[in-house]
Amino acid sequence: MVNQSSMKRLALSLLPLAICSALAAEEVSKPASTEAPAPAKKAQPEPAEVKPKETSGTFHLEGQEMRYTTQTGLLPIFKEDGSIKANVFYVYYALASETSEREAKVAPSKRPVMFCFNGGPGSSAVWLHLGGLGPKRVDTLLDGRHPTALAPLVENPNTILDATDLVFIDPVSTGLSRAAKGENEKQFLGVEEDIEAVAEFIRIFCTREKRWESPKFLCGESYGGIRGAGLAQLLQAKHGIYLSGLQIVSGLLNYQTISEQPGNDLPYLLALPALTNIAHYHGKLPPDLQSDREKAQTEAHTFALGEYATALLQGNSLPEEQRSQVAAKLARLVGLSKEQVLDQNLRIDRWHFRKLLLKKEGKVFGAYDTRVLADDLSTDEQSPSFDPSADFLRGPVSASINAYVHDTLQFESDHPYRVMAPVPWNFNQYANRFVSMEQRLAEALVRNPSLRVLMQVGRSDLVVPQDAMRFSVNQLPLPKSLRSNIRFEEYASGHMMYFHLPDAVKFRKDTLQFIQEASH
């Protein structure tokens, strides 16, 4: 027997069918129309792909002239039905012979290719492109401390183009990359969505440019560490693309290591050695530490992982006498007063620290590079109103990339080149948890034991303090046999260490060694 509620549901489910039948009967009873049928609308043709521009150039290393070709274009990403859903802007440099023939065309298996991107989310690849890796660089003083509105583009003496071909990728909504007409850009603006889109770019590029047999590398900076680690795993699992190497510059693997918020004390512990280095650089440590930076760093590491961690773990149950002792030791290591440390409940906010340390001098320092100073314009605020280490570079870099793309690379576009785009990033898949790629990087290494990883960190980086990445690597669930696959290199400057001349030289040397070791 069917109960009344079941009968009601059945009647409601049949109602749409009854309405459709009645409408159909009404249409049959109507007299035929004498009007001519409207002409069928023609399907709009799919926009033609923009043909990439081909140019050539030379660079010099150790007195030797070397040739390269450059391909600049928009590579389409397709939907399942074959229509275009986005066009990704890229610049591809390939070492060439005297006849301008790409070396990779003759022997693809002997010529590596590296796919490069910055982070953000929302950053174009311009920083690695015209600062660190490409054959051209913005001719501004590489320590970033002397701002200029414009700077010429010159040869980069520290390019790595002699060792690997380079592909600089601007993720969708950055640079000149855009969602196709009628497509919502939000489908690309998320942790997993972004990884999927860049992976698809790499797959299509390898097919079109015949690079499947080449040793493949990724280089990701900052949030590019999240993207790069996710790509290493996804490229293997989905496309069968196994990397030779993953290079992470000032990168991030786990947001928990830098997200200062109630209930998460980890960032305060991991940032302490960086704060000590900053205080040392600006001459704010007591004499015994100021005279020996390595001693200061060692003391900070020991304190952070020991007494300081124990104190924060106790929270409000920490005895007052012990709280006072911890505050005094912490103040000694960061160049602040004991009272300033207690005012912050033993938890030194990185952005507030940028105002406190040089408050008497009326100065603030950068977050991307803490050596870079500027006048403090917002004296009543808790953190600086701008970052001189980023803003002092943005002007000349923006002017250079726009002129270079249009004039030298001869790529025409009326779209603005978005050096940094304020994208609405989607973290929905990571609701109520921190975004982390630690597990996925470990999986990539376990499934591809030949994969090598180079981690490059800067002592003057406060955006991603150096110990944030060290902590993540120490947490990777890796067998002992694979731990040596990961190598660390440290630099004196900040997030974009290649803008500091001594570090730029070391950056090239370390990267060349990494490529050589990972390619064999």
Structural category: alpha/beta
Strand portion: 15-25%
The overall pLDDT, averaged over residues, is 90
Uncertain runs are 1-35
Question: How many alpha or pi helices?
Answer: 16
Helix content: 25-40%
Rg value = 28 Å
Summarize the main sheet: 10 strands, mixed
Whole-Å distance between the termini? 75 Å
Oligomer: single chain
* Number of E-type strands: 14
Tell the overall outline: globular
Q: H/E series, N to C?
A: HEEEHEHEEEEHEHEHHHHHHEEHHEHHEH
Structure write-up:
The protein has 520 residues and is α/β, with parallel strands linked by helices. 39% of the residues lie in helices and 16% in strands. The protein contains 16 helices and 14 strands. The protein has helices at 4-29, 103-106, 126-133, 191-208, 224-239, 266-281, 287-290, 293-314, 320-334, 338-343, 350-356, 388-408, 438-447, 466-475, 480-483, 501-518; strands at 53-61, 64-78, 84-96, 113-117, 136-138, 153-155, 165-169, 178-179, 216-221, 245-249, 363-365, 373-375, 452-458, 486-491. Strands 1, 2, 3, 4, 7, 8, 9, 10, 13 and 14 form a ten-stranded mixed β-sheet that branches. The protein has a two-stranded antiparallel sheet with strand order 5-6. Strand 11 and strand 12 (373-375) form a beta hairpin. The protein is globular.
